[in-house]
Write a structure and sequence with these properties.
Layout lengths: L3 E4 L3 E2 L15 H4 L7 E8 L11 E7 L4 E5 L7 E3 L2 E6 L5 E5 L9 E5 L4 E9 L4 E21 L9 E7 L4 E5 L9 E3 L2 E9 L2 E8 L12 E5 L4 E9 L4 E10 L1
Parallel strand pairs: 1-3
Antiparallel strand pairs: 1-2, 3-11, 4-10, 5-9, 5-11, 6-11, 7-8, 7-10, 11-19, 12-18, 13-17, 13-19, 14-19, 15-16, 15-18
């Protein structure tokens, strides 16, 4: 995946580049197609004054559709990274600041969560805390859909009595299927959730991923799957609960 490497204030090294599918809740079905690399750019910067210094801060255009929800960050998104204390600002097409982020993901990284009220080219400005120096890889996650799972019980770790939804995913994409609100905006969990992901091929379902508790430890008992889609096609998400306990959830799905 090609992306920019910017040394701000030094030199510019490169240029950027259960059943049937539920389309009613799939945000991309009404938002239109937006083509853009999900890992946007790498940068090294200093003396950015919280990403307010335009000259010393990195910046990139981000095309958003009306109503689209995104997570943009140097942490908490696939392929994102940071060294030291990063700072992010998002400006709308009229150059008005609409969101900022400093310490996020329980780290010194930064992650903006934003729902665009209107379509257009937004500007992401990336810098460092105060007058310090830092580096980062800025990546974006675009929300594909959300759905609510009702109260479930006696699912035997999401093997029976599950709530199922099916979506089409593109090969090469990394998806985040989550009931954890701290890592996927819009997700919620009540009780100890379990997720399973199945690939559908010629009417046969093959399990490709499962999770009981999100790996980073920030989600308590909420489940989250992060999975690289190997082949384009339909995949089924099954929601259940640990053992035979009861639970409910709102599942958020992001492409990263």
């Amino acid at each position: 995946m090609t992306r920019r490497l910017l040394l701000i204030g030094v030199s510019l090294l490169g240029s950027a580049c259960g059943g049937a599918m539920d389309e009613s809740m799939e945000e991309s079905s009404t938002l239109g197609t937006v083509k853009q690399k999900l890992a946007l750019f790498d940068y090294i910067a200093s003396n950015t004054n919280y990403a307010q210094n335009v000259t010393n801060s990195a910046h990139s255009a981000i095309t958003l559709a009306a109503g689209e929800t995104v997570m943009i960050g140097t942490c908490g998104v696939t392929e994102s990274a940071h060294t030291r204390d990063t700072f992010l600002r998002l400006l709308n097409p009229a150059s008005t600041e609409v969101a900022t982020a400093d310490d996020s993901c329980d780290t010194l990284g930064s992650r903006i969560v934003y729902t665009a009220p209107s379509a257009g080219d937004y500007t992401l400005r990336a810098g460092c805390f105060s007058s310090g120096s830092c580096s980062g890889t800025v990546a974006i996650a675009r929300r594909k859909a959300t759905f609510a799972a009702p109260t479930l019980s006696n699912t035997n770790n999401a093997t029976i009595n599950t709530y199922n939804k099916q979506y089409y995913f593109t090969g090469g994409d990394t998806i985040r299927v989550s009931t954890c609100g701290s890592s996927a905006f819009g997700a919620t969990a009540s009780g100890d959730t379990v997720l399973r992901l199945f690939q559908q091929t010629s009417g046969t379902y093959t399990q490709v991923a499962t999770n009981d508790t999100a790996a980073d430890g920030s989600c308590d008992t909420a489940a989250e799957i992060v999975y690289a889609i190997p082949t384009s096609g339909y995949y089924q998400i099954r929601v259940g609960c640990t053992a035979n306990t009861a639970c409910s959830a709102t599942v958020a799905i992001y492409t990263e």
